[in-house]
Amino acid sequence: MAEKKQVPLRISKELFDELSRWAEDDFRSLNGQIEYLLTDCVRKRRKKEFGQNNEEDAGN
To answer: Are 30 and 24 in contact (CB under 8 A)?
Structure first.
């Protein structure tokens, strides 16, 4: 298993409350929900970048 790093995170009370409710709906801890969302965003960004690179290569 990959080593986990600890990162202090400061967020508004409103965002904290919303993420907490979302985590509860998804049966995750708040930490697990934040990690899930960040991982999903990174995966989508990589996919988008990969897709753009392939389109650029195909045009050349």
So the answer is: no
